[in-house]
Amino acid sequence: MTMTDNRAESQLQPVTARAVSYSGIGGPDVISIIERSVRAPAAREVRLRVHAAAVNPTDIAWRDPGRPDGQWPLTPGMDAAGVVEAIGPDVMRLSVGDKVMAAVLPGGPDGGAQASYVVVPEASVVTIPADTSITEAATLPMNGLTALCALDHAELSAGQVLAVSGGAGLLAHYAIAIANSRGITVVADAKPEEEDLVRGYGASIVIPRSDDFAGAVRQVVPDGADALLDTALLGEAGFGALRDGGVYLPVRGWNKGAERGIAVKPVWVRTVLERTDWLELLRSLVEDGTITLRVAGEFPLEEVARAQQLLAAGGMRGRPVLVM
Predict the structure, then answer these.
(1) Which UniProt keywords apply (predicted)?
(2) Is residue 291 within 8 Å of 144, Cβ to Cβ?
(3) 3-140+293-323 adopts what CATH topology?
(4) Dist. CA 243–CA 263, nearest whole Å
(5) Do the Cβ atoms of 223 and 206 come closer than 8 Å?
(6) What is the pLDDT of residues 35-83, one digit of tens each?
């Protein structure tokens, strides 16, 4: 397809999308499926025909307990994969028809990823990994960027120790795999039946999952870890796993102090959604086998509440994906 053809495609009018919608803060009763208009892309934007959108814990958090920056009604979803349907002016890397994955920010007027069409900045979109399905690709962008953001904040060198709580989860998986590929020693927890799984992610040491994560880490790293990625939301109970002056990496924000010179560096993925270089790195990490993508189940858009309930129940290894 020529540049002229691409530019001609960008002159499309708004399209009608089917989308998940939250009417406000609350339980599953606030969820519905609506039709909404999706505008044409502006400069340096693309419009995607979404074929798959992952369901993540953050989608639930938008409605329960709720987000103060939410604009109601709100379409959730931070992971989309599909096909470029239209492009705006000055788009250079992508063409109509490309199979892509995208990191999407809910909360604004354009809504999140759980819709049949979505407009996204070109910088937040890359082609999917080779030999990967669109459904699999939908599980990568947001959690992959979160993992890279956490490791960027931690500033660890090869041989240093990263502790990861909730070691069997998807975010933990990506962070463990990437850290291991950089020569970082990873200590992560797991249930007995999941120890091999977490070891397969790249964890150097797997400790038993228990109510005393910090104590278990100290048994194998007496001086304490250099950094802790707290995907299990341990909070202050996790500080004991860290050495004096270590780095605590919370994934749900932080409004408290710390002890023993511990540096608290919250991981806000929304600040890195347009890191094209990181999205391209994630693609290469899938292609070289460092990261293995896992779909925990496929659900039609109408079953989004069920997908959220199964995710909230725990135990999923991978992500449920809405398919359209």
Answers:
(1) NADP, Oxidoreductase
(2) yes
(3) Quinone Oxidoreductase; Chain A, domain 1 (3.90.180)
(4) 11
(5) no
(6) 999 999 999 999 999 999 999 999 999 999 987 767 889 999 999 999 9
